């Protein structure tokens, strides 16, 4: 079997091993493919992974044979490029790179410009006509080689380089002259000799053989081993080695370098797009010293630029490049991002890959390509990153508006918003009522602030992470939010704040960008999203291919409307408690909680009943005909009680109970771990009258809307935090009892189901028993993650960042389902549930319902629907379609 | 097939159906068995459960046949007793009772004295010579019959009875004369006629047939249905009906009634034991109006009582009774508790069952019976309730001491203790240091109080349940504790309290009994437990039969000593954090926590190191050669920070940091749900230097003790709150690194293992991965229960009682493992763990390690050991033996 595979123009191996990543590595396979389809890649060869393993087993036995094969592959390069390795006049230089089966970024080593020595560097200087370039190339090579191959600490050379710049009073590498660099190389040689007791190797063949050996050995470095352990990569894979001719775009006026896209990556328009520089290397573009030129005449003209486009300056090369663009799109069936170099009029393609693009461009390119007949609808769906749609769905800052940045925090909920700063929810409510746009600015938010968050255009907090209360609620509402802005300090007494040293009084205007986390002074203009033809087209395709339904988590009429516009097929989670914070209701709610006996409680509940009923009427009207899953009261009661002195005083006046007594009752209700406390169905078990009121409100509303519209109303009553079948059974009986009473009073019957959230590990473990009672399960993955992992979302900030950095969790488990842990419970519950009740309806209503990876997981385990916040509904539709396609 | 089975003296059916509880019910089978072995039971008959089901299916078709069989069975009774049913002169009376396959206490109905009517009541009066007795028997019959058979509300008759007493100015039923009762019966008849439109039935055959039908029907009552659903009893079982002759102990001087034990139930001595009353009914004993007489001459003499013993007064009957005692013990192979009645010189045994006994008696009886050759060792082990041993292991109140009860709370940790009241842990420490016995009295306790709890003789709290901090810690330490004493109110400022209205100043003496929950004034004398020969014998037997090892949860030298005396075979859980609360250490600990950088933290840790090391030295010395599982720091750091104003001031002086800054840091560390917060190995991951110090202390101590004693030291390092294999892996590397350093310094190597607690659902779910790293698992069932059920132990008080009352959980899941939920995770983790590492050591160290039902579960799933608090070690040894025997 071959151990070395050549690649380059005109080479297309019959051997399937040349295409096998297991044999030639990922990079080797890509280079081979580019050559095979006729791209002018700089020629080179790949030494197989098997050879790496042989080498690591026995470092001597293979070397002679390998040397022979390498030598003959090198001759292939020399012939193709027309230069010879080690030639004193116009030397062939090569790169030596590792290339394992999968990409291991930064984990392994690379050597560039190999083939330079004290003689060939002069040849390079002559042939390039640029002495400084030649010596700098040599300097880089010596530095890389000494570090990678000879194992000398990189810092020794960096220090010498720094010292050289200091001695010459310059700060940039580019300010060192050819002579400076030559002197520096002399110093480098001194370091090498002192460290190794031998001079730097001048024999280019020895350089190459040692570099190949060093890349093989890098597979066994500590760094690579750790990386493999973290990523589950077996040590037996080994790495391939790629040796490739160096090409230079700075060998005169017929040389150039550039980057091109086959279509416009910002807009998606079908037009070549790119930049190039004559007589330059890639790094010159990066350094930003010279202004890049446009690729096409059209683009140059549109921009009014003076420097000639490539189309004008190198028309033959441009024509060849354009031909390759077509070839590339036809082959890869996607918009490509290409790096190219022209060396003395000869075009080389260094790299091609699918180009990054904006969400807007992604949609347009996908739709165009389908219409061009280039790709199928399924491929178009697969190609769009669902998460990127978020960019399209929220208002964004007008990119042309001038701005003054005050500071920044975490991009907690996307979209941009401007408004007057307010420091509490009540003020937010009052000023919003007067028609003002407000930004609610808080240390952190609590459920007490919900009414303020609802009316605010955006939310800004000084504390809290991406999964803080503010962040979660804001995302749910689709309100832009910046959280954890550490440069923000608030003085609630003075009703003012400082952001990045700037004083902000209540009422001052600011703008926040929840997509970037930035905070700006004043009201910047924002641009509303335009959901164009391409968006609608892709969504329609997605709907055609997905198996799962997509619902929304919503409880306000406004959110319900938005969700329906975005294509929600029902409500998966309507949280009734949010309804209790609005306006006067909170006082009735507090009266209910403070009741010392059932009668007092009933009086307060009677006042809440019509309010709840009217909420449900509006929701049922909007969701006509679609299922609405209503979760009964869930949070611990003390969340509804006052916190501040003034709130206590106000409540005392409203309910006629002394402040001291109120405070005592609030203290009694306080819990050490409210997350695991008296909440969810435990409230329903101990205070059945609360759930009775809620269920009555639901059924009365359902009857009213059903009568009024003649359309079906489909309530699904969801009991939260169930851990045993018996809890659900008791509460289901309560629901049925109330339903019978209401239907008798109304002379009307409405179909409904009773089910539960699966949000405790125990519920998942006994899901077979629970399914005997519950007609549906909705996985409450927020709480299920908290309990399964034993991590409080509110407190996780202290260590979760560190946990993700250290690879303990690959992703934030509150953002993307922890498949190995939480996922295992969900799978078990789904299986057990179906064993008892084959047609049980299964869904998910945690934050994960809007996360594409989690949606794919839900699809794999066979859930019937996912439920996402309104603004994530399109994302969920697309992700569900992708997942369905992946399964076929 | 027979539908009616007679029983009584001389009847022993060949038919195995007569012994089958499924056919004749539990009570019917027992009565049959008693008769079969020759006991003089009042004769009667049982109608099968099948007949009940026939009846419920078709109420008419069967009645004629059944009537015939009943009639002939009744004749059997009449012949045996020598009275006739409905006889006007000396009527046979019968009881009619339900009797299902399993006991359903209070769920079904009973009718006594059936066979009375306006004629036979006069016959009963004549034959008994007690007119009041006759009319009262009739009154009771009418009342029961009207309620059970005729379905008239019981309250109607109770009201009439109350009114009759009021009218006659008396308060007790017994104060009503025969005439009063006759009048009352007249009123009862009026109620029956008004309600039913028909007179009370005077035909005794009709009475019997209707009573049997009513018992059948009671199987379908709502009450019975609910009971069945709660207890998983199938409706298809049906109930049998037992009809049995009434016998009366109050028919003159040759009649009597009594209760007897075949051995002394208090001491276990082999001596007949019991009480009797001549010419009396069972209820006379209960009413306490007459003083019962001793059964034996020896007992009467010992007590110096005047009234004759039964041995003297009714020698023939006594001889017969004594003969039956021997027969009973031989047959049932256990000490029996017997109810008997003598009717006109004829002895009837009404009931026999295994007698309740004290723990001391249980041990003595078991050992004696083995020595007598009556039972085998295995039977002796099986028979002793492990939980009852608790009575023997703690000091108890001297039963003879006079006492003044102040109030009571929950019996949170057994044992009695006296001492001076102190209201805070520091005062407790100071006064205990001076040699005073103190009782720590707190609103509730927190980890800050640990040092005070350690030095106190007992703990009393006003708040908190059986699983509050005080209760759990006190049980762990073996300190008596009364928690949640609602009549206790404390004024910390005034340093005084009130208990049940009595003022208690600091320093006043009180006594608490943690076994009963009682609080007494003054210092009552207590008696230390004597662990006698029988205790040692039974423990030795248990050790011979158990499979699992028994370890202890202990971290103080005193606890370790106690546990070894009680037979602990190692430490399963040594909680290092408890060591940080003692004396000055808390200040070093606080300095460590408040450190703003690694260096400051290291300085504080350096001061803690020698303290930790000396703790471990003492523990390793005591546990010589036995394994010691040390859990690294687990609780959230803020638990160590001050709470009160004065503590902050004190700390500020000690560490030289302003109070404000300290308070700010404490606030920063506060968590919403500390249970799910930054604790356990999450501390080790973020602050590795804390674990490094602890591990260094362990290994330095192990080396020192190993060198000093020449004995092996067996440390097992346990990493808490692991959720992923990677966390454990990282920390295991830390442990190994420190071990290598210490062993190199010490020139000595100590064998050790590294493992983890399985206390998060996720850990159980990925136990296969974790077992690749961890060498042992210890199930931390306290936290595993909290997370799996989503119930905070600290907050469960609000609803857990209600949950247990409603049958949602059969037992408190923090006391006895929730087998269906938590148990499923433990089983899964044990299986997955062994799949990866066949010899992984598995144990349990939650509170459940001392609960017999949980120990049986641990045995079933194959754990290697259980670990219990020191005082529960004997319980665990016995429970483990019982479980091993159950498996064979």
UniProtKB/TrEMBL annotation, chains A, B:
EC numbers, comma separated: 2.7.9.1
Superkingdom field: Bacteria
Pfam families: PEP-utilizers, PEP-utilizers_C, PPDK_N
Cofactor(s) the protein requires to work: Mg(2+)
Positions of the PEP-utilising enzyme mobile domain: 436-517
Alphabetical list of InterPro entries matching this protein: ATP_grasp_subdomain_1 (IPR013815), PEP-util_enz_mobile_dom (IPR008279), PEP_util_AS (IPR018274), PEP_util_C (IPR000121), PEP_util_CS (IPR023151), Phosphohistidine_dom_sf (IPR036637), PPDK_AMP/ATP-bd (IPR002192), Pyruvate_phosphate_dikinase (IPR010121)
Cited SUPFAM superfamilies: Glutathione synthetase ATP-binding domain-like, Phosphoenolpyruvate/pyruvate domain, Phosphohistidine domain
S-adenosyl-L-methionine in keyword set: no
Keywords per UniProt: ATP-binding, Kinase, Magnesium, Metal-binding, Nucleotide-binding, Pyruvate, Transferase
Family the entry assigns: Belongs to the PEP-utilizing enzyme family.
Protein's name according to its UniProt entry: Pyruvate, phosphate dikinase
Provenance organism: Sphingobium fuliginis (strain ATCC 27551)
Lineage of the organism: Bacteria, Pseudomonadati, Pseudomonadota, Alphaproteobacteria, Sphingomonadales
